[in-house]
Design brief:
single chain; six-stranded mixed beta sheet; about 20% strand; CBS-domain; Rossmann fold
């Protein structure tokens, strides 16, 4: 089993006259408010793991304890109780010299307000961690220019920080952290001081960098939409305690308590939920290729659809057949449904977010087909389900009938009645 990159075990942080007494009373069950005479409890019994290569977001309102936790992860704050492990090694209660070595080699930090050295050039700021590591000037400046290219600041190395915009300065802060070449990156409200458009751009760039570098990132934010956009998993804090840890989908669709439910009610669900979160089983919206046209037509009639998906026995999506084409086959006495297959123009993947599904859903003549990497039909998304999913809760719904120049119901009934009692088609609707 792989050792987590970061592990917190029963962390407490109390500021004040008698922190040890406050922790003892908290462990005995006293609420936070009752121990104020001994100290202010900023973090109470926090436990979590951060896996290697994961973006782990800690979020909460001001005063929830999230920034205190991140400072405990690199030893800027001593833990009053509990311990922090980095790659399995404890960093709580160790000598200062060893802690500095861990910070230098394993953990880098990006601050909210950039913390750039104003008298140094951009390249010199980025190269500063390498200078601390004893890397020669030529080598560290070359490395700095390489990383500046990576964060989109190529050609800006000889400028002073004052010549850069806020978003560009934050890129320098990220580049400096990357220059240290540590496995773990701590980001404390890193984008909170930026304008909304620049902030979104920085979030997207961070995800692009993560795709290339696969760092372990602990990201602190008070913005739920930011947490949902960035986090592989999210820890929600309230009054010093972690009240829920889960994926963005877990927290949005299954909040642990009323506080979390209220917290997530205004989140932009279209950017968080994926096709896999809302899709339904294909059910009667699909048949296998061995199904005869009469069975397919009956399924379309029963479900008020003008077409139906066709898969092979392994559920790979082959195409779709309309009611009009099924009627043609019945009248000709033919039984091979695949001779009338039409291509499916719009399919989506299980990981596609809802905001990317509206155009395909509008253009699809059937409930939107969800396929896996092998092209298998794994689910469908009716348009009404897609719209309902954007509300606080999803409910079971029925698809609004789709018009594809459909055959009249009377004509379908007449054809099916005419063949009633004859040999049935092979295979039933899936």
């Amino acid at each position: 089993m792989t050792t987590p990159a970061v592990e917190a075990k029963g962390l407490y942080k109390v500021f004040g006259r008698n922190p040890a007494l406050a922790v003892k009373r908290l462990k005995a069950g006293e609420p936070r408010e009752k121990v104020k005479d001994a100290g202010t409890a900023a973090v109470i019994d926090a436990s979590f793991t951060v896996e290697r290569g994961e973006i782990f977001v800690i979020m909460g309102l001001s005063g929830s304890g999230k920034s205190t936790i991140i400072r405990m992860l690199n030893g800027l704050h001593d833990a009053t109780g509990g311990e922090v492990l980095v790659h399995g090694d404890p960093i709580t209660g160790i000598p200062a010299s060893k802690l500095r070595g861990i910070r230098r080699e394993r953990i880098a930090m990006v601050f909210q307000h950039f913390a750039l050295l104003p008298h140094r050039t951009v390249a010199a700021n980025v190269a500063y961690p390498l200078e601390l590591q004893g890397v020669g000037k030529t080598e560290r400046l070359a490395k700095a220019e390489e990383i500046l290219e990576l964060v989109g600041l190529g050609g800006w190395g000889d400028k002073l920080p004052s010549a850069l915009s806020g978003g560009m300065q934050q890129r320098v802060g990220i580049a400096r952290a990357l220059a240290a070449d540590t496995d773990i990156l701590l980001m404390d409200e890193a984008f909170s001081a930026l304008d909304p458009l620049i902030r979104r751009e920085m979030q997207e760039q961070l995800l692009e960098l993560q795709q290339k570098l696969q760092k372990t990132i602990v990201f602190i934010t008070h913005d739920l939409n930011e947490a949902m956009f960035l986090g592989d998993r999210i820890a929600v804090m309230r009054d010093g305690r972690i009240v829920q840890i889960g994926t963005p989908e877990d927290i949005l669709t299954d909040p642990a308590n009323d506080y979390v439910e209220q917290f997530v009610q205004d989140v932009d669900r279209a950017r968080v939920l994926t096709a896999a979160n809302v899709m339904e089983r294909p059910g009667t919206v699909s048949v296998t290729s061995g199904t005869g046209p009469r069975t397919a037509l009956r399924a379309m009639s029963d479900n008020r659809m003008a077409a139906i998906y066709v898969t092979d026995r392994g559920r790979k999506l082959l195409g779709m057949v309309t009611d009009r084409d099924a009627l043609k086959l019945i009248r000709r006495g033919e039984t091979d449904l695949t001779t009338m297959l039409k291509p499916v123009a719009q399919t989506v993947g299980q990981d596609d977010v809802l905001m990317d599904l509206f155009v395909p859903a509008a253009e699809s003549p059937l409930p939107l087909a969800v396929t896996d990497a092998e092209g298998r039909l794994v689910g469908i998304i009716p348009r009404i389900t897609l719209l309902t999913a954007l509300g606080p809760q999803t409910t079971e719904t029925t698809e609004i009938p789709v018009i594809l120049d459909p055959v009249s119901q009377t004509e379908i009934d007449e054809v099916l009645a005419a063949v009633e009692g004859s040999t049935p088609d092979t295979e039933e609707v899936r």
